[in-house]
Amino acid sequence: MHHEFPVHPVPANFRDAHINAEQYRSMYQRSIEDPDGFWGELAGEFLSWDQPWTRVVDYDFTKGEANWFDGGKLNVSYNCIDRHLPERADQTALIWEGDDPGDSMHITYAELKDHVCRLANALKARGVKSGDRVCIYMPMIPEASYAMLACARIGAVHSVVFGGFSPEALKDRILDSDCQVLITADEGVRGGKKVPLKVNADKALDACPDVHTCLVVRRTGADVAWNGERDYWYDELVGGQSTDCAPESMDAEAPLFILYTSGSTGKPKGVLHTTGGYLLQSAVTFKYTFDYREGEVYWCTADVGWITGHSYIVYGPLACGATSLMFEGVPTYPNYSRCWDVVDKHGVNIFYTAPTAIRALHSEGDEPVTSTSRASLRLLGTVGEPINPEAWEWYYKVVGESRCPIVDTWWQTETGAHMITPLPGATDLKPGSASFPMFGVDVALLDESGKEIEGPGAGYLVVKASWPSQIRTVYGDHQRMIDTYFSNYKGYYFTGDGASRDADGYYWITGRVDDVLNVSGHRMGTAEVESALVLHEDVAEAAVVGYPHDIKGQGIYAYVTLMHGHAPSDDLRKELIALCVEEIGPIAKPDIIQWAPDLPKTRSGKIMRRILRKIAENELGSLGDTSTLADPSVVDKLIADRPQP
Ligand code: WTA
């Protein structure tokens, strides 16, 4: 399966890349043998410190503890803005491309400093201090970046909640990290449609009495409800503030942000990242993975509500003094050429997106691509889910005209930055493989018994040693950090992913091995969708699994058992879908609901998800052993009733 597609060697125009094959090998080896020397040097090269560290790294995986650059002090917003001003005050830091193709703007590094300082002063005026949590629930507008950087400037900890999440999901996240300030907008605009952010925020805040300040950016000018004691228009509160705000000198291990992500059980976890290690690895990987060169325009299509937006729209690019494009819209609006029109309009050199977007665009054929120039493109990237080789080849040949390497970057919210990825000047590309580990990332594959697999093989993907941008804790629940990541296999960080390694040492990520779905690159715990479904009074039980979906990668397949005496109906189906949207957001809509009179259970009452997965995947030939089921006939019934997708 790994060798059907040709290997693409490093192209001639990448021979002078930052890292060539030989450099990769020697730097990688040193990074593993001497992490202190390796990361210590890079920390000096990539970041500006107020005070040097006394020790590079100290960690203990059994306790889920990691400490990088102990004793060091720095400020993230200073590193992303102020220190660039002597050479780049007038260079564009952010290009904003609005949903409407006629809307765009350039923000220079000097302007960025003014925006961020004004907002930082406004937050201070509202009583926000170092260590306080601030929730950011925003559309993709520059103020989202200002908000993150303003928090970093004063040492406040931001928690960005994706603008597509429901009021219920927002409320849970505000409460979990005890945020007392919310920054939002009247409405968002995506694909020509309005997103009612302030309406959602109001609903969420009804249950959050400790939020004393809600700062609202005027994006559309919509008429919104107003709580005079709590709500402030952004322009009114921020506009008059001073453009000077001294950056707070923070400990290297001071919390920088919390970002919620789904796990296999219970509520989303607040992944906590800290200051020095996070910024270092996002900057280093930005420069090397994308082979970023001075003056280039870089575009990552992710939303700032996800880790990709944090590390590769805001922190990594700005720490490197790059020009980062932020796009408010969607790749399919107003038409399927939108991405390439934006590339041509702004001269984008590096383009980073998700496989689901590539598949959606691929399904519309070549014409929307070939009708554009794309001459500026030099490098392409993907992130978020495995990319099928067919989509890879199309991206490579049609979008990149066989001249742009593709970096398929594997990483996670918890890892903070790239972990396994090709380097464009060093790696011969195999379509569908994330290739080799990044500097300092010591990965291994384990078999069921927890033994390391040598050479080619498949198993659980784990990491053997701490890396600078690793998760530091699950906010407010360190035991959950230990249980989730450091307990399955003692002494290793457990990624939750399965992978194989071929004879050349290339890694191929196969996907989650836990109960986490990846729907269009969005992580979702099956347990979260199940909890939403069982809120309906007619529902007795629900089991959710993933199934292969042409565009989304994985679709959501829900088996629903109704209360005795209740009959399935189309209305009920609609109500259940609405419930998922209400509890989580539109990304959690089940694609298929199967009414299941019974679920396959063991004699002890445990749902056999393996069987439900096989039925959803239509892999009926490999159901495996069903003899341990309390009632094996349940399976035949489910197979007979399986709806045709
Ligand atoms: C999956 C996104 C295959 C994987 C940065 C991981 C990938 C989860 C890739 C993390 C890739 C991410 N190839 N699978 N290049 N990148 N994944 O936290 O299952 O939203 O565990 O972080 O996405 O998703 P998260």
Neighbour order of strands in the largest sheet: 12-11-8-6-7-14-15-23
Number of domains: 2
Ligands present: 5'-O-[(S)-ethoxy(hydroxy)phosphoryl]adenosine
Structural class: alpha/beta
CATH architectural category of the largest domain: 3-Layer(aba) Sandwich
CATH topology of the largest domain: Rossmann fold
Q: Quickly name the level 1 CATH class of the largest domain.
A: Alpha Beta
The share of residues in extended strands comes to 15-25%
> At the fourth CATH level, what is the homologous superfamily of the largest domain?
ANL, N-terminal domain
Low-confidence spans: pLDDT under 50, at least 5 residues? none
Cα-atom Rg, whole angstroms?
24 Å
GO molecular function: acetate-CoA ligase activity; AMP binding; ATP binding; metal ion binding
Catalytic activity: acetate + ATP + CoA = acetyl-CoA + AMP + diphosphate
Binding site for Mg(2+): 534, 536, 539
Domain Acetyl-coenzyme A synthetase N-terminal: 24-80
Write the layout of secondary structure elements.
Blueprint: H1 21-33, H2 35-46, E1 55-60, E2 65-70, E3 73-74, H3 76-80, H4 85-88, E4 92-97, E5 104-108, H5 109-125, E6 133-136, H6 142-154, E7 157-160, H7 167-176, E8 181-185, E9 188-190, E10 193-195, H8 197-205, E11 213-217, E12 231-233, H9 234-239, E13 250-251, E14 255-261, E15 269-274, H10 276-289, E16 297-300, H11 307-319, E17 323-327, H12 338-346, E18 350-353, H13 355-362, H14 367-370, E19 379-383, H15 389-399, E20 406-409, E21 443-446, E22 457-463, E23 473-474, H16 478-485, E24 493-501, E25 507-512, E26 516-519, E27 522-525, H17 526-533, E28 539-549, E29 553-562, H18 570-583, E30 592-595, H19 609-616, H20 633-640
Parallel strand pairs: 4-17, 6-7, 6-8, 7-14, 8-11, 11-12, 16-17, 16-18, 18-19, 19-20, 29-30
Antiparallel strand pairs: 1-2, 3-13, 4-5, 9-10, 14-15, 15-23, 21-22, 22-24, 24-25, 26-27, 28-29
Helix pairs in contact: 1-2, 5-6, 7-8, 10-11, 13-15
The chain binds 5'-O-[(S)-ethoxy(hydroxy)phosphoryl]adenosine.
5'-O-[(S)-ethoxy(hydroxy)phosphoryl]adenosine binds next to helix 11, strand 20, strand 24 and strand 25.
